[in-house]
């Protein structure tokens, strides 16, 4: 997708990322538990600073997703466990940017980073069981649904179950070979 760009999160993204978060607060709150902690540009700046510091220390990189020069979401690694060569990916988009394949392509690019640059053997994605749109992404990209964790996340007023998806490096390489 020539109109999609991932850029490492930097403080220059703060105003646009806060505006996107704020404009999509109701939409995002259906599945994301962190919105109550983002009440100002300062909160967004603190999040970005923490992401930058972690990435600078060789930790989990996070990226702003751009579609035709508009910041439309965030995708990146929540965690990296270098000893075990395991990482976990998360992503979100503003509502008006959904349904265009942007999240799928962003995750596809994160897979390349994870397996080729970070040397991971396993990449996981956790999605709320009821979040059908988010679950479609790992399913589309060949991840295996390995488990359901019951009531593992408190989401404002209720517990939600998570589906755990994983893709191994060998599966990723076999899929690449299949299409080349």
Q: Helix fraction?
A: 25-40%
The N- to C-terminal Cα distance equals 18 Å
Question: What percent of residues are in strands?
Answer: 25-35%
Give the helices and strands as they follow along the chain: EHHHEEEHEHEEH
Q: Give the strand tally.
A: 7
Mean pLDDT: 95
Task: Report low-confidence residues grouped into runs of 5 or more.
Answer: none
The number of helical segments is 6
Give the biggest beta sheet.
7 strands, mixed
What structural class results from the helix and strand content?
alpha+beta
Oligomeric status: single chain
- The 3D shape can be described as globular
Indicate the radius of gyration in whole angstroms. 16 Å
Give the spatial strand order of the biggest sheet: 1-2-3-4-5-7-6
Any descriptors?
37% helix, 180 residues, alpha+beta, seven-stranded mixed β-sheet
Structure description:
The protein has a seven-stranded mixed sheet with strand order 1-2-3-4-5-7-6, sandwiched between helices. It is globular. By secondary structure, it is α+β, with helices and mostly antiparallel strands. Helix 1 crosses helix 3 (41-56). Strand 3 (70-81) and strand 4 (86-93) form a beta hairpin. The mean pLDDT is 95. It has helices at 14-23, 25-28, 41-56, 102-117, 132-140, 169-179; strands at residues 4-8, 62-67, 70-81, 86-93, 122-128, 144-155, 158-168. Helix content is 37%, strand content 34%.
């Amino acid at each position: 997708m020539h109109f999609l760009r991932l850029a490492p999160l930097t403080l220059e993204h703060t105003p646009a990322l806060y505006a996107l978060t704020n404009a999509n607060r109701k939409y995002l709150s259906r599945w994301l538990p962190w919105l109550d902690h983002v009440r100002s540009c300062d909160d967004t700046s603190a999040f970005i600073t923490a992401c930058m510091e972690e990435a600078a220390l060789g930790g989990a990189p996070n990226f702003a997703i751009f579609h035709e020069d508009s910041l439309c979401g965030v995708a990146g690694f929540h965690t990296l466990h270098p000893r075990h060569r395991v990482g976990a990916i998360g992503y979100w988009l503003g509502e008006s940017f959904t349904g265009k394949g942007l999240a799928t392509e962003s995750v596809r690019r994160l897979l390349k980073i994870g397996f080729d640059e970070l040397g991971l053997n396993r990449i996981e994605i956790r999605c709320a069981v009821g979040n059908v749109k988010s679950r479609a992404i790992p399913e589309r990209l060949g991840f295996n649904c390995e488990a359901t964790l019951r009531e593992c996340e408190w989401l404002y007023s209720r517990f939600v179950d998570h589906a755990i998806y994983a893709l191994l490096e060998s599966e990723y390489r076999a899929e690449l070979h299949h299409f080349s």
